[in-house]
Structures are given as C-alpha cells and as structure tokens.
User: Fold these one by one.
Assistant:
Number 1:
Amino acid sequence: MAAHADPRTEARVPLTKTRVLSAAVELADGGGIDALTMRNLAHALGVEAMSLYYHVANKDEVLDGIAEAILGEIHEVVGTIEGPPDGVDWKTAMRQRILSARQVLLRHPWAAGVIETRTAMSLEAAKYFDEVLGLFRAGGFSYDMAHHAMHALGSRALGFTQELFEPDTADAGDEQATAMLEQMADKIPHIVEMLMEVSHDDPDSTLGWCDDQVEFEFGLDLILDGLERLRQTS
Amino acid sequence: MAAHADPRTEARVPLTKTRVLSAAVELADGGGIDALTMRNLAHALGVEAMSLYYHVANKDEVLDGIAEAILGEIHEVVGTIEGPPDGVDWKTAMRQRILSARQVLLRHPWAAGVIETRTAMSLEAAKYFDEVLGLFRAGGFSYDMAHHAMHALGSRALGFTQELFEPDTADAGDEQATAMLEQMADKIPHIVEMLMEVSHDDPDSTLGWCDDQVEFEFGLDLILDGLERLRQTS
DNA sequence: ACCTGAACACCGTTCAAGT
DNA sequence: ACCTGAACACCGTTCAAGT
C-alpha cells in the first residue's frame, strides 16, 4: 500500500477527465485564465497536448468542466454552512448563502468570467439555483415571484457583480492626480466633486476608494429588502 | 464637389484611427466579436493587416476604441431623449436614461461583453456616469449615497445584465423535454415544479419563457424603488 | 508619412501512426 | 486503450523594407 502511494508511481497514473479538469483549475488559479491553454495544461500533466483530446472533446469542454467544478465547490461550501431553511427567515438564509458563494468565487478570480461565458446550464448550476429557488419558496414566494427574484439577483445570486471599472489606485493626496482631476472638472463635474469631497473628508483615502465587499452587500441587501417588501404586499 | 464624393476616390481615402474603429464596430455588428480579428479588419478596409498598426498600437486599443464608440452612441441617444433633469423626479429620468442605453446595447450585442473587459474608464464612460451621478444629485442624494447607488446598479446603469444562462427554447408541450424534466425531479425539484406550473398555466408557453426586457425592468425598478426609499429616510 | 512581405511565436485541432 | 509527431489553419505582432 505504501508502494501504491509512492509519488513516483503516482505520477504515472493514467489521465482521466477529472484529473485534466483539476489541473485546469489549478492552472487558472495560479496564472489566470490566459494561462489555461491546451498546451500548458498538457505540460502541467506531463503529457503532450494532443493526449488531452482523448479525454476531452475540445477546450470548450474543459471550460464547461472547470465552471462546473467551481459551482460544485460552491454547492459544497453552502451545503455545509447552512442551517435548515425551514424557518421563515428566508432573507438571512439567502444572504448567508450568497455571501458564502462569493467567498468561493473570490478564491478563484477567473471563475466568474468563465461561468458567464457558459451558455448551457450545468447540473451543478441547476442544483445551486434549485436550492435558491427552494429558499424563496420556503420564504413564501410564489414560483412566479421567485423567478423574477432570481433574475433580479442575476449574477449576484452566485456572489459576484460586474465591476465595470477598476477604480484608480491613485492616492488622493497625490498632487498630480488632483491637478488632473481639476482639469477634467468641466467634462465630468460630478465625479470630480465627488472625489474631492472624499479626499476632503478623509485626506488619507485613495481616489478609488470603493470597498468591493461593502458595495456588494449594499446592493444585495437593497435587492433582498425590496423582494421582502414585495412578498409582504403580494 | 461631386468628384470629391465619388465612391471610387472615396475608397482611397487614407486610413485613420476613426475609420479603423468604425470598420471594427461594423465587423462586430455583422459577425460578432469573434469576427473582429486584425486580419479581418484589415481586409474590410482593403488593406494589409500590418497597416493597421500604423494607426493603432495593438488590438487592445481597437477594443478600447469600439467600447468608447458605443458609449458615445449611448451618450448621444440619451442626450437627445432626455428632458431637463432639474425636476425632483430623479427616478423616472434615471429609468428612461437607462432603458435608452439598453436600446443601444441591444443593437450591438457584442458591446456589453467588450465593455466589461475594459478595465480603464474611457472619457465617454466617465461622461455617462457623470450624468448618472448628476441625476442622483439632482434627486437629492448625497455623493456618498449616490456612489453606493451606482455600485448597486452596476452594469444595469448601462442597460445590461448578466444573463447567466440562455434558457432552453424547448416547447413546453414537447413530450421529450417534459419527460426529461420529470427524470430530473429528484435533483432539481423546485426548478422542475416551477416549469411544470408554467406549462400548466399556459400550455402554449415555452419552457424557457423568460422575457429579458420584462426581467430587466423588474430588477431595475426593484433597485430604483429601494434607492428612493433610502433617500427618503436618510 | 504611410503601407507591406516575410517571419515569429503563439493558438486550437485533425489525423495517421505508434505502443 | 491510450498517447504522440507532424501538420494545418488560424491568431497577434515585430521588423526591415518598400513607396
């Protein structure tokens, strides 16, 4: 048995689709999604690129696979953490679930982008959304209402949002940045004034001061509160 | 002057960055973003691929450029349609603005995806968001609150949402689809029941019955109503 | 100043061939 | 059954050269 676990022989276990996919996830975790090429993936597995095609139809199947893997991870984490959803407090259960999913996605920064590009819903995704739907139902939503609710949440249901632009990380005290801002004041007056206000209130702050987690929760709560209100009046 | 407009001579006008970018937009409109390769783009302009690099640093600059072009189009459309935002009814003004932006993006289906991938905020984007910010301010929001509001809207501010999965277009009457659904009932019970309910209420409906526009407006209104409530109590 | 041909270093993928 | 070498049709991009 010790021999069986010998790393030298272990390195020779034949490829399987699962092994290919785990290696793909590892590769993306390590070097971003651009590092995930068929040739890199093969190299990481100590094999020639063409060997992959024996276990996987094409790269799209790899992407489907790693998306599903992450959704599976979410599913697992959420299943562990969550208490019984038989209580009527759907909102805190939902909140906890979504924030847990978010933690998983933060560990795999590439995953949100990949999940977005998959058009077909995988089984893992279906299972996740089924549970979300169940949570809404347990909270007293009709299927119709719950359906709208899922759309309203959109990718927030999985814990991520479209961050449209990376805020500049320029220091608010930075004179050059401040000067540039003042120069733009005629074209984007409100943004400039907003940033000036921030740097005035808190001179040590950064010009791009957005806290992703805070903003995510703000938006999430806004939606969940809105849904709760609709539920009560329906 | 007629000679100046002659199409034969017109076809010989030298390249400019603007011409390159318009051709790029046209190419993406016609064949999707995958059709936009440097070689295709050059061919559409009747030129060799390498000539492009005289007017444009690299492909990223092309992508930046066409994203900005669409944002400019949005900016233009929104500027025309909108009445003076000096009224206190920020909500309907915002709603109208965002739905107008959405119309532009629906005409350029590839644009949302490209805009997402641009990390730096272009001037056109800044101008658009500045006006959104101005609308919030006119409605009585503090900069801090307006900032949260923009994050809460996310990509909805520009009129699009992450559609995570394309719903199946299977007919609800389709026996095969229904049978498959029943088979899945143990794994995704709520989704199955929801779909069954839909097909029962409306036998002619499609299994993937989501109306994107309706769902977009539902989510948008949920957020805008929530923001209005916060404004009143702050 | 503006455009090009040849070439490089990459992709994903096919196919016939090896063990 | 599993893996590979050579090759194909694509990418974006560089660089020296043409007009």
Note: Residues 59-81 of chain B form the longest helix (23 residues).
Number 2:
Amino acid sequence: MDGHAGIYCPSVRQIADSTVRRLSLYLRFLEELDGRRTTTVSSEALARLGGTTSAQVRKDLSLFGSFGTRGLGYAVSDLIEVLRDILGLDREWRVAIVGAGKIGLALANYGGFRQRGFRVVAVYDNDPAKIGGLWDGHHVRDVATMAGDVARERPDIAVVTVPAGSAQATADIIVSSGIKGILNFAPVKLRVPAGVTVRAVSMATELELLSYALAQRGLGAKGQA
Amino acid sequence: MDGHAGIYCPSVRQIADSTVRRLSLYLRFLEELDGRRTTTVSSEALARLGGTTSAQVRKDLSLFGSFGTRGLGYAVSDLIEVLRDILGLDREWRVAIVGAGKIGLALANYGGFRQRGFRVVAVYDNDPAKIGGLWDGHHVRDVATMAGDVARERPDIAVVTVPAGSAQATADIIVSSGIKGILNFAPVKLRVPAGVTVRAVSMATELELLSYALAQRGLGAKGQA
DNA sequence: TGTTGTGAAGAGGTTCACAGCG
DNA sequence: CGCTGTGAACCTCTTCACAACA
C-alpha cells in the first residue's frame, strides 16, 4: 500500500468537471516538459500550452493545495506527482471490458491505457459466436457470468462497448455485480443508482457538435450548394 | 439543394456547447419515441429521459424558436426535423479519415455514423506499410497527397486517429488543405487557426475523470487496500 | 386545464487585480 | 522583482415562477 491517497483533499466539497478535465490536460503537458528535462514551469506557461489563462491554472491547483513557489513557479516533477495523486493515477485500476468489439480493442491498444495504470482483467460479450474466443489475449466470457467473477477479480471499472440497444441492460448487470465506475461508449444515457459513476465517450455527440458548428459557420458566408 | 439551412437562427449570437450537447441527446430520444409511434412529447417527459429539467428543455429549444403547442407539448416528428436542421444533420458531411487504425475503423463502423449523414470519402495514413492497402473498403492514401485531393473530393471533416506524437503535424496538413472541421481522437490539444473547428473525443480524459471520481469516493468510506 | 415560452433570480465557474512571499 | 494564491467582481448557464395561450 502507498498510504498517501487523499493527501490532497479539496477545500471545497465538489470540484467541477471542467477543473478535473484541465488537471488531466496539465498533467499531460507536465509529462512532456519532464521528458525535455524542464524542471520548472510557471502558471503562465502551462496556460499557454493548455489554451487557458494563468489565473485559471493557479485557481485549479489552489483548490487542492499550494504547490508552487512564489517568484519561481511550479516544480515539474513535484506537480506531476501531485496531479497523479489527485487524479487517482497513483494506483492500478482493474478494468473489465464488456463488448468484445472494435471500440474496446481500440481502447485496450491505446498506449496511455496501460501506461496510466489501467489493466484489463476480463473481457465479456453476450454473442455466443464471440464467447470462448480470444480477444487481445483474453478469453471472452459470457456476460451472464460477470457477477460471479467480480468477487474474485475485483474490477474497479467496466467499459461498455456494446451496441446502443443493449447498453442499459449491460449497465444493469455491471451495477448489480458491484462495480462502481463505468466508461460508456454507447450513444445512450445510462441510468445508474447513486454511488456509481458513469463517464461517457460520445463520438456521436462530438460529431454532432462539429456538424452544428460547421452548419452555423456556413450561414453567414458561403452556404455551400 | 434543400434551401432551408439556417431557418432556425438563434436569437443570441453564441449557443453554449452544453446546450448543443443536450439538443443532440433530445434528438436521440425523439427518434426512439418516433420509432414507438409516439406523436407528442412534453418538455417534462423529454427532461426525464435526458436527466435534466423541463425548464432546461424548454429554454434550450426556445433559443432557436417556438416549436411547441401550449397545453399539449411538442410534435415528435416536427421536433426531429427541427433538431436535425439545427444540428446540420439535414445534409451529407463528407469525411476524410486520417490514420487507418483501429479507432478510425470503430468510428466508421459505428452505425450512427452513416445513418446521420457522415460519409467516408477518403482514408489516409503516413505508414508506407498501410498506404495502398485496403481499409474498410477504401484504398489508403499517403497523407502527403491530401491537399491535392481536397479540391476534387471536398471533404468537410477530417477525423484524426493518428498517435499523439504526430497529431499536430497531421492537423497542420489538414488545415492547410482547407478543411474546416476536425474530429480529434488523439490525446493532445490541437492548435488550429480561427475559422477551423476542432472537437475532441478524449478517451484518456474521460478515463482520468472516472479515476478521479473513484479515488475521491474511496477517501471517505472504504479506501480499498 | 395543461403545457409552453420567458423574464427574473440564483448558482457556479471564470477573470481580475493585488496582497503575500520567496 | 517575479510569480503564486485568493477574495471579489463578473459573467454565463441553470432554475424558478408565472403569464400567455391552445
């Protein structure tokens, strides 16, 4: 055990999503800076990299503590450790992938996945054609057996990469098996009880936001045939 | 030409991302309701489906016009058409995929992609091993030839599914070739000139938001070994 | 009567500006 | 002197409450 989880308690109860999103961004920049042997960084420099303002950077960090040195800035390697701790990346997260399809595969093969401490411990599907087969080195199991496996393998997070139509039913199985975190790739809003956290990666929504932006842009100027 | 693009001009100049995101969600629910032959829906019902409030639904829609009937609600099929129009889904979007890998494949095979009017017109990569090969029915071309193709094939949107390290360079090529919309799957913040819209699908960030939420949750109660 | 559309009030996040320190 | 940390002002989005109306 590392025993230092929760050193950086926010003074305020609830931290905004937008803040955590930026912390995650800062961390990526800091790791890049660290790779270039940069030892110190100012809020101004971090802000430029992240497309925000120096005040925003300082405010974001100050919600969790005082990590900088006045007149100097932030020590890159220290801040990396702090942010990893805050974001919960100082430990391993055990992940079950539900839906042995292409999206899950893309995620599992995404370099940052393993590197950030996310480890696939089980893969499920409900398609008899897939069950028993191999998927990225894992045997695909029947989703019906999930609840029984959880006690043994203790996954922390379930990744839902099933079609929209079966996403809610899948989420229900996941919830009832006791998993408290869900990363949802299906283009539906999952309904879960309090105490379970859902995050959605919404390709459909982002595409539509893009479509909206482009359509708006076309109004004033050209409006292509 | 359909000629009715831009009927629904927002009274305010700038619509919030969060609003457009909800419109996209409403549209999905409306299509589901339409499939069940439901003809009318109240803001209250839409709100329940989308996890928001009726006032929010009405406010969101009222930014673009008055589409409901007092005492009755909204006509499902009419509202579907209105939202499709607002979101720019009443036309075809020509898409170039840059990075012939697994994520792009997952996206291209996602049902809603074609169905919502997004059509892949070209696939690029910079890996000589992939160039010339077949990818989901498309010949993979050298990304260096992109600028020349754009004049002929007029893609509206480029999907960036290359590794983080080459994402910015790829975006630069895309921008200089004249494409105005980018859907970015790489875990980096793309820097583009004004006039180009970027949307990011960030698996890394959402994973970290999930990790943060779970880590926080562990503090008060159990704090697993 | 039932539900929309909307001004006004409220909440929450961002920006400002400067005191506080190294 | 430079840069952080932070209360206060600002602004934007959300919620409320009710008039308007089919």
Note: Chain B touches chain A through 71 residues (CB under 8 Å).
